[in-house]
Structure formats: C-alpha cells, structure tokens
Amino acid sequence: MNITIIGLGYVGLVNTLFLASKGHNIFALDINKNKVATLKAGKTTIIEPHFQELLTEYSNNIRFTTNHKDALRNANMIFICVDTPQGNDGSVNTTNFYNCLATIKESITNDVSIIIRSTVPVGTNKLTCDYFLDSPYKVDIISFPEFLSQGKAFEDLTNPMRLVFGVNDQKGVQIAKSLTTLFDIKKIPVMITTPINAELIKYASNSFLAMKISYINNLAQLCDAVGGDIDKVSTGMGLDPRIGSSFLNAGIGYGGSCFPKDTNGLYWIANNNSIKMDLMLSTIEVNNSQIQYFLNKIYRRFRSLNNLNIAILGVSFKGGTEDVRNSQAIPIVKALLEKNANLFIYDPLAVDNFIPLFSRHIHIDYPASIEDTLKNADFVVILNDSNEFKQLTAQFYIDHMKNPIIFDGRNLYRLEDMKNVEYHSIGRPSISKRK
Ligand code: UDX
Known about the structure:
Structural class: alpha/beta
Bound molecules: uridine-5'-diphosphate-xylopyranose
Radius of gyration: 24 Å
Low-confidence stretches: none
Number of strands: 14
Distance between the termini: 68 Å
Strand content: 5-15%
Mean pLDDT: 95
Largest sheet: 6 strands, parallel
Oligomer: single chain
Number of helices: 17
C-alpha cells in the first residue's frame, strides 16, 4: 500500500515514523522546504523520545518531499496531519486543511482513502465528502483523531488508550479495521462511530482534561484562601476512580498547542450551533487567571521588582518538550520584564524557540546551567515540570542561591521537603521563614 502523510508536525512525523517502523513505505509531504531538507538529511525536526533513532533506522522506508504530485500520484491512503490553528476570534482556522484537500484533489490518480488526523471542527468530514463528490475517483473519508501528548508522542501512538474512527458506510468500517491492522496495535478498545461523534470525541476529550485542570486550579485558589492544601485535596479526590487522579495537578495552568486551541474551538463550535457552553468559558477564564494569581504571589512578597535578578526555570509549556506555543511562561516573562526585573532563563530544550519571542531582550540572559542561572538570583520562579527541576532538592537551592526563595508554579516539591527554604507554591501554605 502507498501511504502519504501530509503535514510533518508532531502528528504527521510520529505517524510517519511509526508506520515506517512497521515496514510500510511512506511519502511524507510538507510545504516547508527547510523542514523537509532537515528530515531528508536524517535529522529530526522535533525533540521527542525515539524520533531520532527511528528516523535513522527507518529512513529507507520514507521519502520526504515538498512535491505534492510525486507524493500523491499513486497514493492509496492519505493521512492529513496539517495544523488547524486558533483564529483571532477563537475559531478554528481550517485554511491549511482545505488547501490540503485542494492539493489532493488535483494530484490523485486513483481511488483513495483520506484519513483525517488533524483536529477539525464538527462537520468537516461531511464537507470533505462533499468536496470530492465531483472527483473522477472514489474517495473515502475516515475521521481518525489522534490523542498523543507531546513528550511521549511515540509511546502514545504505539500504546494508545483507544482508537476512535468516524466512518460514513460499510466500506469505511473496513478501512477503519484495516487501519487497526496497519498500526499493528492489539488489545485496546476500538470505537467505530459516525464522523460527527469522532470529531466531537476529540474536542470533548481535550476540553474535559483542560476543565479538570481549571477546576483544580480554581480549588487551589480556594485552598489558599481557607488554609487548605490542594495536593491533599486532589489526592483525596483522585482516590475515587470515578474522578481519577490524573490531570489534577494545580499550577499556573495549561498551555501548548492543543488545550487552549481546543477549549476555544469547542466553545466556538457550540456557539455556532446556538449552544451556550459556559463551562468552556469558565475553563478558559480560570486558566488565564492563574497567571495573574501566581504573579500576585510574587508581587505581594516583593513590593518592587525593579532591578531584581530573577531566575526562571522552564519556559516550554510543559517539561520534556521544546515547544513554547501558548506557554504560560510567555505572559509571565513579559510581566516580569515590565516590572524592570533582570531575568536569567534556563530551559535547554526550549531556549532556541524562546529567544526569538523576546528578540534578545537586554534584560534577559540565558545561562547554560541551573547553577549559573541561580547564582545571582534574588529568587527563582519555576514554570514547567521538567524532570531536571523535579529532581532538585531544597539543599541544592540553599547551596546555589544567596537567599533561597522559590516560587513554584508547578507544585513540584513536597512541602515537607522544603522546610529550610522560603517556598511559595499554588494552593498550599507558603513556607516563609528559613529555619
Ligand atoms: C494534550 C492531550 O493530553 C493529548 O491527549 C492531546 O492529543 C493533545 O493535547 P499535550 O498538549 O501534549 O497533550 O500536553 P498535556 O500533557 O496534556 O499538558 C497540557 C498542559 O496542561 C501543560 O501545560 C501541562 O503543564 C498542563 N497540566 C497538565 C496541568 O497544569 N495540570 C495537569 O494536571 C496536567
């Protein structure tokens, strides 16, 4: 079977590598010439566990290209993996997706199955079917949303929690079944449903997880107000399997390329269908408010930040990724710069992506080690949950800071381990005095 993957971001690249590792021959198409050149040269464009090794090992099974005619001429199966970014009004921008359909329509030379892996608004499968009605070829459209998390994209694809397919007819059911064998994944729930349901399941899942995070963050604010400890509260809640313990970590809120876009997208889709989804509005509002809530903790402790040196650990939207898209760190860094602070930022994975956002600001320095980042700092601010930061101990901060004052935006440490430093986190009592 000739498989073509269109769009070589996270979703496209991991699908390419995974299918190539299963012995399939893949055409991998992207319009970005630099990206394709890098991949052709055997270098991964995304920092993810296994990506480089897989690329090296299976590059013979992959033809990376920018030439859509070559990539689509004899394709039997086409995976659409292009991004659908958020529009200015919270809408879902499907321009790349529809450009991609136009390219497919003008380039295919036989019957094909189109597999939609991009996150697309409800009704897109139907619109795609309509779009190909006048094609001389039979085009089957299958919705096959992906649920991978950055930092463990390959693991999530190899070992998914479920496969969801949206199909239009019996032929679609067969294609969905052949996809499960193509992926060679066994013993996981497979759901074959209508395209509308599959499209909804993707938005509903991401938005539900985002809602859990905002719920726990809102509760964290309440814990601060009444003297509770959000870690204990979320642990106690999570013991109920109906609630579950995951995605109940309080902090400065969610960022990244999915949750902010998909919560807004679901709200927008509902609104377009005259349904009020205020839960989504609240989820988004709470998430945005966490940034100011965290900053206020700093502002209450330090009346002025003028000329203070602040160490920042972690600027990607979560640990283990180089991705800074919609990172909570961006507005926080901006706010601290507006207070005339000097920032020392450490995030070895994300630094190259972060530097251009502040165009080498004279009040930002990027030391090469945590030790150098901390050494002249008046206090340190932790913004993501990188394993490297999780492993640090109170003693480490004592050893490397003049005065160990920590603002932890991700609640990385147990309070009992931080007794000898000044430690502020979210939804938990501050440890204010060094003993
Ligand atoms: C998410 C979904 O998990 C995945 O299934 C979907 O396909 C794409 O979107 P991802 O964006 O990679 O994946 O990140 P995820 O690990 O879900 O974290 C999203 C954000 O929420 C991060 O900023 C993270 O720090 C934050 N988060 C997560 C919390 O603040 N608390 C939590 O308990 C969990």
